[in-house]
Amino acid sequence: MEMLVLINRASNITAIAAFLYGSFAFFLPNGKINTIVSASVGTIFLLVNVFYRYRKLEAVKLYFSLVVPLWIMVDTICVGGDFSQSAAFLAITAMIYVLYEDRKTMQQVLVFVVLSMYTASTLIVQYNGTLFPPIEQPLDELIVMVVSVIWIFSMLGKRDKEKKRLIQSLEEKNKTLKATSEELERFTFIASHDLKSPLRNISSFLGLIERDMKRGDTTNFYQNLEFARKGAQQMHYLIQGILEISNINQDQFAHRANYDLGQLMEIAITGLRLEIAEKNAWVQLSSMPEYFCNDIEFTLLFQNLIQNGIKYNTSLQPKVSIHSKQDNEQLKIIFEDNGIGIEPKYHSYIFEHFKRLHTQSDYAGTGLGLSLCKKIVEKHGGSISLSSELGKGSQFIVALPVKPVQVASTMQ
Which domain covers residue 344, as residue numbers? Predict the structure, then answer.
């Protein structure tokens, strides 16, 4: 709506100038006629405020493309115009060129109509004269010329700004697309590599089962079958994780609203009730504020961080404590656990796709959970960090802006 604001502002300035000139011209020869003409000009431009009030940009475009040139044509036929008429029609033509730059057919039709009005009024005055005696308005040519030049430069200046903004936007999108493309290649390579391992295990153990069955040897049948089953389960988790990452990157959960984070935490905890019960874990949740976010993404975020504190934990009773801090700029949600901890040199490593510090035999998983958390937090304009030492538990800190922002999604 910036164009509407610009047009309205320029129209108000033009209207004020016309009314002031009409007041001055009243005391000059042909004062009454000069005042009427100037007042009509001021009224024509002042009416733009009506469209501005109701945010009717398209109505403003047509108003300036048809009503204003029609008024100039009638005024020229009645009392003359000459040079000032040409300057005004030139300004309107420039406006049409800018206002309808993205609609070429409409642009051409309106330019043709405006030029037809100019031609018609010029020919009528040239061969038949004006309907009323022509009037000479002091400084009329100069004022109209100055106003027309201002309008032309305002429109063309706005057009240049829009083009620069569009170019800048395209450059930023190209950078984002390039980064996404590069990360996608890396993601695809790592994903395919990680999928090969369980697939290879499944194939190998099924081959052993087939060989033993042919021999009639069932000694290792259930053991090999269990290994194959675990491989299939690992593939399932990997594919599920890849789909979750893909959904976040494609912005399929774009809807955001104010949600009680405490309620989203409770939903996440409920989804983990079996794991919590199996490990005799305890999740302590303090009061949480509301936040403008996507509920699906944040529930997934909370679930992964709570699950992380329970899974990587050898205590008799794993504990995860969750509380928040807020100031004027940031909301911090802190997840503290009494787990195995992480050496400082691995703090940034664990947030990358498929990065794991432990083998499948030690802790099952895909290495996608924390990278998914990082993606969700960054998508909401925040950051996630870790404070931890080996054997001393971990503290994950989710820092979010108090005023939520929309961040372009890239695969990072």
Answer: 252-412
